Amino acid sequence: MLAPPGQRPVFRFAPSPNGPLHLGHALSAILNHEMAQAVGGRFLLRIEDIDLARCTPDHEEAIYRDLAWLGLRWEQPVRRQSEHFGDYGAALDRLREMELVYPAFMTRGDVKSAVAAHEAAGEVWPRDPDGSPLYPDADRKRSETERRRLLAEGSRHAWRLDMAGALARVARPLTWRETGEGCEEEMQADPAAWGDVILSRSDAPSSYHLSVVVDDALQGITHVVRGVDLYHATSVHRLLQELLGLPEPVYHHHRLILGPDGRKLSKSEQSTGLAALRAAGASPADIRRRIGL
Ligand code: GLU
What we know:
The chain is an alpha/beta fold. The chain folds into two domains: about 1-85 and about 255-290, HUPs (Rossmann fold, 3-Layer(aba) Sandwich); about 95-215, Alpha-Beta Complex (Glutamyl-tRNA Synthetase, domain 3). It has eleven helices and ten strands. It has a three-stranded parallel β-sheet with strand order 1-2-3. Strands 4-5-8 form a three-stranded antiparallel β-sheet. β2 (about 40-45), α2 (about 55-70) and β3 (about 80) form a beta-alpha-beta unit. α8 crosses α9 (about 235-245). It is globular and about 60 Å long. The mean pLDDT is about 95. The structure holds glutamic acid. Glutamic acid binds near residues 14, 212 and 226.
């Protein structure tokens, strides 16, 4: 895996402190660490805590303990996203100046009812790669006067990307370089499959997609190594990078660790939590064996 010429490769593990790390996180963190070491690169840790309601300092402390126990070492200071909302706001402002974002007033419940009404009439509502319904176009089509009125009234809203408008602004085809599963390929990005993605939440002044793209650029990340559950999200990330003029990292999507039910592990499932396994007497070597390293 090669970094752009003259640049020391930079890898990152970017967990959200909203629950205990499990075996899947161990795989991701160790792979990043080892790939960085193998190419003389840097290994960064980033705390993705924009969800202030669910992320806690206790979970963050637990992340440091678990990773240190696994034998990983990372550079200081650790970037904590909640301390950088200004950076994400600046990126949102750029997209706003390009007239590619609009205020979105529908709640999750509103979307659900709109979709249910549509499907009751026998029509199929399009879904994104994660299975969620695409955001309806009512807010995008709203007049400027109406938008201003709703904003002035203080109506709760998020900010969404006008996907069609955004696609019209970037050169096609949009691709990324993927090195996962031993292959090195140019992948076709398909951001349209996600519809008008959220860029700033109603309860936080950013979103996963926006913060991850801004931070990967600000931290000079050359290699994004993460679970294959985020494979399709890469399409959105590539689009945002193009719109914002940000560099394009190499992507490596790795296998997931599945539970006995064949589903990906969840933070609420205690039996595969690293701290719980440690308390039950497991060693770092046991963890490596369990995740097939
Ligand atoms: N914070 C994300 C997670 O915990 C990972 C983001 C990424 O690696 O791009 O799933």
